[in-house]
Write a structure and sequence with these properties.
The chain is mainly alpha-helical. It has one domain. The protein is about 45% helix and about 0% strand. The protein has a two-stranded antiparallel sheet with strand order 1-2. A hairpin with a 6-residue loop joins β1 and β2. The longest helix has 30 residues. The chain starts with a helix and ends in a 5-residue tail after the last helix. The N terminus is likely disordered.
Length: about 375
């Protein structure tokens, strides 16, 4: 796990506390909290039970995002006092930079943003007498052994991903919307059917060149996959908020996730076509198949919304609000981010999602 110096830094910026007696989520003390996620003090300070549940789920999601972005930053981002950690990997950094020369800065800034979201949400919960979230007991997954990465426990696994790339076609379609039951095709079918690394597992992954570039290309599409999820589930959960201030928080943080997604889908479009000689993963020429995969169509194409009788309109999609938290957990699980996690972790994630999705229900 973290060294003493690293622990001190993380205590200042990433220390999260989750209290309660052990129950359905195992030995990590989540039961009482998740059964009743708001305290009497929180009620007195204006947070409803539902708002607390929403904020706790989002705090957990942002902690997970911080964990995965930290791993990317250690190898291909800028290491400084804002985002301390690894020492960089020059070969991987160069491969990622093929997608854009400024990738190191963008990775750094995305990491810093997600950490700020988690820190703020936990501080807001604590200020209103509600329990903040701590996922530290689940930092058990292995780190990359490639030069530049820290050898510490992780929450997320970036070395066995199955990336759903239907977000790419979803934002380019003018007639299909998952909110209306549509299923969009995968832009890169190979990424959606295998367990591919988005960071090198070890220094042996740095060669041959096309293998390393395939890893970097995978990371580029994974960046966009992660951020389009945040774009959608913030919009879904915002519809469940009780407090105008909590709604303001969700709209404000959710807006930055939209900015992240816009950046990353633009950069992913620069991934060079190739076939990985090690895994067989193929990145096609996305500009060869028409508008549904055209790389410079980064503005959301107008599409159907609410009802097909209405004119098409440019929107965030999906934003249906029945179970956005559950959908987010299922999508991240299918992505492979949690390969190797414990049953207790999955129980905790499920309980947090159920509580957030129940927010806004009226008796």
């Amino acid at each position: 796990m973290e060294t003493t110096d690293q622990s001190a830094t993380l205590t200042n910026r990433r220390s999260f506390m989750l209290k309660g007696a052990a129950a359905g989520a195992g030995a990590y003390g989540l039961g009482r909290l998740l059964a009743d996620p708001s305290s009497a003090s929180a009620h007195r300070k204006g947070l409803s039970k539902g708002d607390v549940a929403i904020l706790q789920f989002l705090a957990a999601a942002e902690i997970l995002e911080t964990d995965l972005w930290q791993q990317y930053n250690e190898l291909a981002g800028i290491q400084d006092s804002e985002v301390p950690g690894g020492s960089g990997n020059s070969a991987y950094t160069a491969a990622v930079a093929v997608l854009d020369a400024d990738m190191a800065q963008y990775i750094h800034d995305n990491t810093d943003d997600e950490n700020s979201h988690a820190t703020f949400l936990n501080a807001y919960l604590a200020a209103h007498g509600a329990d903040p979230i701590n996922l530290d007991p689940f930092r058990t997954l292995p780190s990359s052994k490639a030069s530049g990465a820290q050898d510490i426990g992780r929450l997320t696994n970036l070395m066995q991903l199955t990336v759903d790339t239907s977000f790419w076609t979803r934002y380019r379609s003018d007639s299909q919307n998952p909110d209306l039951g549509d299923t969009l095709p995968q832009a890169i079918p190979d990424l959606a059917t295998g367990e591919h690394p988005a960071i090198p597992r070890s220094d042996s992954d740095l060669t041959p060149p096309d293998h390393l570039q395939a890893i970097a290309n995978t990371a580029g599409f994974h960046f966009a996959f992660i951020e389009q999820g945040g774009t959608s589930f913030y919009a879904g959960l915002a519809q469940k908020a009780d407090s105008p201030e909590v709604l303001r928080i969700l709209l404000s943080i959710g807006g930055t996730e939209i900015m992240h997604f816009q950046t990353w889908q633009d950069k992913a479009g620069n991934a060079p076509p190739l076939t990985d000689p090690t895994t067989g993963l193929t990145f096609p020429d996305l500009n060869a198949d028409g508008e549904l995969t055209q790389t410079n169509l980064i503005m959301p194409e107008p599409t159907v919304f609410l009802d097909r009788k209405f004119p098409i309109v440019s929107i965030i999609r999906p934003t249906e609000s029945n179970d956005p938290a559950r959908d987010a957990v299922e999508a991240l699980t299918a992505d492979g981010l949690f390969i190797g996690q414990s049953d207790a972790f999955f129980a905790a994630a499920k309980a947090l999602a159920q509580a957030a999705d129940a927010a806004g229900d009226r008796d």
